[in-house]
Amino acid sequence: MRRLLCAEAHRFPDLLETTGTGRITEALADRFARLTLSGHLRTPDPAEAAEQFLALLTGPAEARSRFGTRELPDEALRSLARAAAGTFCSAFGPRPAAPPAGRSG
User: How would residue 101 be classed by pLDDT, with cut points 50, 70 and 90?
Assistant: First the structure.
């Protein structure tokens, strides 16, 4: 179904809204904005960060499952999720605080 949606998106762009991806992106963007305000993330644009996080999750999963034609084991899915979260946190996680000036160690 996903391949059909992608193949026909140019003719029926409203069909893509039926996948729910927009709602997921909006929910993630909202959460990322809150995490940014609390200092747990650094996201200048939470909506863009949400799109990038979803791409980190879905890109490898689609490639490894051959666009859904092969089932991925649960451990493979967990591994993909850990890798996506790690990459995302490396890019958008808070930076460690710098040591106070004038202190030698």
Answer: confident
How far apart are the C-alpha atoms of 44 and 60, rounded to whole Å?
25
Give 19-35 pLDDT, tens digit per residue: 667 888 899 999 999 99
Structure tokens at 88: 């995302």
For the whole model, what pTM was predicted? Answer: 0.73
Q: Is the pLDDT of residue 82 over 90?
A: yes
Looking at residue 103, its amino acid is: R
Between the alpha carbon of residue 33 and those of residues 30, 37, 76, the distances in Å are: 5, 6, 29
**Pick from 43, 39, 2: which is nearest to 19 by CA?**
2
- The whole-angstrom separation of Cα 44 and Cα 71 is 36
Between CA 22 and CA 18 the distance in angstroms is 9
Helix, strand, coil fractions of the chain, as percent rounded to 5:
65, 0, 35
Is residue 46 over pLDDT 60?
yes
